[in-house]
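Section 5.1 Outputs to date
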Amino acid sequence: MPQDASPFDPLPTPEEIAGWDQASVAECGMSFLTLMENASREAYHALVGEVGEVAGKRVLLLAGPGNNGGDAVALARHLHNRSADVTLALARPRGRYTGAAGYNVRLAARLGLPMIPLAKADLSGAGAPDVIVDGLLGTGFRGALRPDMAAVVEAVNRLAGRSYIFALDIPSGLDGLHGRPSPVAVRADATVTFEAAKTGLAAAPAAPFVGKLLVRDIGIPTLIKERHPCRAGRIAPRVMGLIGPADPLLHKGSAGRVVVVGGSRGLTGAPLLAGLTALRAGSGLVSVACPGAVEIALKAGYPDVMTMPMGTGGHFTAAEAQAVREFAAGAGALALGPGLGRHPDTAGFLANLLPLPCPVVLDADALHFLADDRELAAKVGENAVMTPHPGEAARLLGKDIPGVEADRMASARELAARYGCVAVLKGPATVVATPEGYVAVSPVIAPNLAVGGSGDVLSGLLASLLARHLSPLLAASLAVYWHGRAGEALADAYPARGNLASEIADMLPRAATE
């Protein structure tokens, strides 16, 4: 798929982005100096876009010892040319900067730009500058900040609200791979990152530090990115284009049939939410196959979702598996697990039900049984998508929750590889992974999604998209992004949260067009 048509923006690791830089020089004859000049110009335009005219503004630029510091020095030159009152605070003696960074330091000196040692920068708050540019440490930073650098970071953060804090490539102190502070990091108002967002910038822990993320192209050739593809992508807004316009000749039979299999005593809301969501997502026919004793409670007065009672009990048993298989014949997709319950008899039901010929969303209690039964797990199949939250993922992987959350991309990859299907690791900055190891990360962090039943909404949405014959990866990525946009839209009406899961489903049609 051509890059400009892909629903994913590249999301390289720090090592992969460094490889792009090196390959641009080695394979295309570009220079690091050109890349630094491009980065500094893009940083200038991004900063002006955020703070407006810079003439007369006092700008303190903190330049670290490496290329990130070189970007800051080059940016100072552009700001100086536009009549900003700039001061460069250098982390090392002027003569110890090398390469492209050294060139820019020498050029700045010839132009008479004011330079002081970083240790002498006034970060006390007395006469705070209008803008502080953080060019201390780049995406290659690892380990823990030295005490002196940590003190600078903390001093910068104390000026929040008085100075506009603008980070180059990544806020200093933030791990470029996982997005965690080490142990502190600059809390930027905005971060301009070059060529592509890095994996750490897309991680949920990074959000309080990154501020507004601005991605700017610095001229890495497309050829290089094609020769050296990264193993992750950031789900882009253009993924919504996969929904496509409605066929004017569409009828309910051709709009997609979804079957939700779930429900048990006390757990009837989950399958109903999944079914209602599939309808809100555009499916033409949606039915819930449920245990016979819970049908009336599950229906709950909703005429929109059809129900099919199976047996007379309050939970599924092996005896109902064949009837469910027959009822689901011809369905475009099936959502399995919402409200299924954990009765021991239900394990036999799943063993007799799987595999199914249509795409399957595995969620909630279906995942509980998968974690216990290797033979059942072997029946999942490549046309399935599993959607665990961190607790369920921990059980599926035999880990604890902190172990899953320590590296969410790695955990999602492990789930997908172990179970042979696309895995959706839910949570802020949800991760979608394929068995081959590609991951797509959602850019959306929406607190309004943090409500019981939100996962059932996602299951119904995902089943609806699978019924449109999208691949598991594309269906999962679109579902995650669309679900997130609905959560963001709800924040306008419920800024302190308090929305219901059903309102996430109700917001989907509007979120698809805004």
